[in-house]
Amino acid sequence: MDRTNDIDAVRSYISSSKYRLHVLRYLFEEGQATPTEISEAVDDLRPHVSRALSELQEKGVVELRVPEARTVGRYYGLTDAGVEVWPTIRHKTRNVEWSIEEPANQATQAIVELARETLGESLRSVCLYDEDDITVVFADPDVRSQYSDAEAEQAFRSLLIDHSLEELDMPDQECWSETIQFTDFSVLKVRVEDDTNFFISFTNTRNVSLPEFADAVLSAFLDASS
Question: Matching Pfam families, A to Z (predicted)?
Answer without folding.
Answer: DUF7522
